[in-house]
Amino acid sequence: MTSIEQVKQKYHALSFNSLSSSLETLLTQAEANELSHLQFADLMVSHELGRREENRVQLNLKRAGFPVHKQLEEFDFMYQTTITKKQVIRLLDFTFLDNRENLVFMGPPGVGKTHLAIAIGIKTVHAGYKVLFSTALNLIESLDLAEMKGQLKKKINALAKYDLLVVDELGFLPMNKKSVYTFFQLINTLYEYRSLILTTNKDFTNWSEFFFDDTVAVPIVDRVIHHSHIFRLGGESYRLKEKIAARQPLI
Ligand code: ADP
Ligand code: MG
Question: What is the pTM of this model?
């Protein structure tokens, strides 16, 4: 006589862990719905595949390293009117990734650049792509460190494994000449091969300020804006709006 426990152990031995832990529920479901053998076989395999997909997404979300969880659904397009919901939704068919195009969100502080970059990044993970989030500062620091250890190429190759790199806050601080050069090597490797989402508080015309040197700034800007969707965000800071709202009396 075969017991449920024995079957569960066999599933477990084959690493069908979700099937193993949900067997009773699935059997009850099959009986309640009078499933045929084929339908039950399909139910079991679909259940296992579904759970594996969920786990994969959770793991990739963890690996992406988003500093906070931001949803597109929470973004108020009535407040931020320099970009439309339609423009953002259109990006979610992910042809920009398949075409190796970049997204650039430019604008002053607090207008939602990071929010949109993270929210799109999260949707991208859910769509099955590999994403890595980094502030420009941390990214450049890690490239410089790799360069010092003679491992720049290895580091760049590791970064190029992601389908999408989200680089936040480019241009908050000027970079030194050496960092600009290592950054250029990354941009050059990713060019027409992988996609970037960049957020920046400076317009391209001022990029030479933080890239220190026009001779490197120009080719970097060239590669980034060639095949890219540029969104110039404006308006009042949302942070300011929240502060003002908090100070207002309730009546
Ligand atoms: P930026 O990167 O442009 O400086 P953030 O994206 O960090 O700005 O936005 C600042 C804060 O305000 C975040 O908590 C973000 O979630 C929120 N925020 C900004 N714009 C909006 C918006 N239009 N709707 C909802 N929340 C917003
Ligand atoms: Mg930001």
Answer: 0.89
Please report the atom of ligand 1 found closest to the CA of residue 168. Answer: 2
CA of 113 to the centre of ligand 2 (A): 5
230's enclosing H/E stretch is strand 228-232
Write down the CATH number for the domain with range 72-240.
3.40.50.300
10-residue averages of pLDDT along the chain (251 residues): 91 94 96 97 96 95 98 96 97 96 95 98 97 96 96 97 96 80 92 94 73 73 86 92 70 53
- For 46, residues 6+ apart whose C-beta sits below 8 A from its C-beta are none
Ligand 1 within 6 A of 121 CB? no
Q: Is the separation of the CB atoms in 225 and 133 below 8 Å?
A: no
- CA of 111 relative to ligand 1 center, distance in Å: 6
Which residues are 228's β-sheet partners?
Answer: 102
Range list for CATH 3.40.50.300 in the chain:
72-240
